[in-house]
Amino acid sequence: MSQIADRNIAVIGGGIGGLTAALAFAQTGAHVTVYEQAPALTEVGAGLQISPNGARVLFKLGLADTFAANGIQAKAVAPMDGLSGEQIARFDLSDQIPPYAFFHRAALIDLLAGACRAQGVQIQLDTRVTEYRDDGSFQLAGEVVHPDLTIGADGIGSLLRGHINGVQKPFFTGQVAWRAVVKQPDHDPIARVWMLPGRHVVTYPLSEDRLNIVAVQQRAQWAEEGWHHPDDPGNLRAAFADASWQIKSFFAEVEQVNLWGLYRHPVAKHWHKGAFALLGDAAHPTLPFLAQGANLAIEDAYVLARSCDRNADLEGALRSYQTARAPRVTRAIKAADANATNYHLSGGRRRVAHAGLRIMGRYAPNAFLRRLSWLYDHDVTV
Questions:
Q1: Inter-residue contact 317 to 274 (CB < 8 Å)
Q2: β-strands 199-206, 190-196: how paired?
Q3: What is the dihedral sign for C-alpha 129, 117, 17, 187?
Q4: What radius of gyration do the chain's Cα atoms show?
Q5: DSSP code of 225?
Q6: Could you give the CA distance from residue 119 to residue 382 in angstroms, rounded to a whole number?
Q7: Which of 48, 60, 91, 111 lies 20 to 30 Å from 70 when distance is taken between CA atoms?
Q8: Angstrom distance (rounded) from CA 363 to CA 215
Q9: Nearest Cα residue to 35 out of 11, 70, 6
Q10: Mind telling me the catalytic residues?
Q11: CA 188 → CA 108, 197, 207, 211, distances in Å?
Q12: pLDDT digits (tens, 9 = 90+) for 7-41
């Protein structure tokens, strides 16, 4: 028997992690309301990669058909020399089950929001939480809400994380990132990582003949955290003035670009307190060098809902959730941090690393996926 049926669940944040949690809890019979501070559920100009570990959760929640209809199945990942434009290696992704896929964030959010509404989830937009209280309630404008469980899926700036753990200041990593989407018809369904000294670019296709671009540069100059800070495309082009002709051609098409600073946040010591719980970036922000931010949040959402569904004791359920998830997300964050270094090598270290990738691609192409089997083969639904 479900231990969460008929309970009132509040989800703070209508992003991918929050909507996945809302759907997973609703499917256990809970009454779920999502509170989103934005006036609309939308993400403009941003792509993401859903690897098999995240896709397994979405399939388990009944989204297999809409997943295939809205995403682009990836064929491969290809490390590239960002100076010469040469492909260093190619590692096949086409036989991944479930498929590795590229999504526009807006498409995935629409998919999840539609499934949530069909399951009876209430989504309240333009609604900001101003205060959390020790009795498990929270304050909205002119209203106090008393759910049985409140889930903070409100990202790196989570107010609930601060309530549970106190203020924890992140530190600037010395890296900034630009994000843009350009028109690129007939682009192969390949994730390309273009590596340059002190910089890298990731490109992959999206629906409607678009190409997603994330470009990262090491630099001492501070930049504000967050995704939505417009920048002059000329600054992006100047930072990669010595890049290959392919990168220059992509950047020549950029008309609008956002810049944000990359900050390291510690994994939260406490993911729950009383009737409050955290998931995704609110609990464990990760740098965008392993394409796992959304996937880890999706996994969190399923494990949290399952833990609460199986355990009548809420404190025990939340403790079980953190115990199950913390080691895995910590390992993923460390792997992402390592990529931040490996993508930006220069001089002799760069030549040696590229030679190693060439050898792996030619003589042991399956070794790449074997090294990531702990990540992609993981299944939180069993």
A1: no
A2: antiparallel
A3: negative
A4: 21
A5: B
A6: 22
A7: 91
A8: 30
A9: 11
A10: 204
A11: 21, 26, 12, 10
A12: 999 999 999 999 999 999 999 999 999 999 988 88
Q: How far apart are the C-alpha atoms of 336 and 86, rounded to whole Å? A: 24
Average pLDDT over residues 72-92: 97
Distance separating alpha carbons of residues 357 and 88, to the nearest angstrom? 7
Residues 215-239: what's their mean pLDDT?
Answer: 83
For residues 150-175, average pLDDT = 92
φ, ψ for residue 343, nearest 5 deg: -75, -20
Beta pairing partners, 225 = 261
What mean pLDDT is predicted for residues 336-358?
94
> Hey, CA dihedral for 225, 227, 233, 236, is it positive or negative?
positive
β-sheet bridge partners, residue 195: 81, 200
pLDDT of residue 224: 60
Task: Give the pairing of strands 210-218 and 230-231.
Answer: unpaired
Residue type, 223: A
Contact yes or no for 121/34 (Cβ under 8 A): yes
Q: What is the pTM of this model?
A: 0.95
Q: Tell how far CA 208 is from the center of its chain.
A: 22
Distances in whole angstroms, Cα of residue 287 to Cα of each of 204, 216, 370: 18, 11, 22
The answer to whether 242 touches 201, Cβ cutoff 8 Å, is no
3-state SS class at 306 = helix
In angstroms, the CA 6 to CA 27 distance is 11
d(CA 252, CA 246): 10
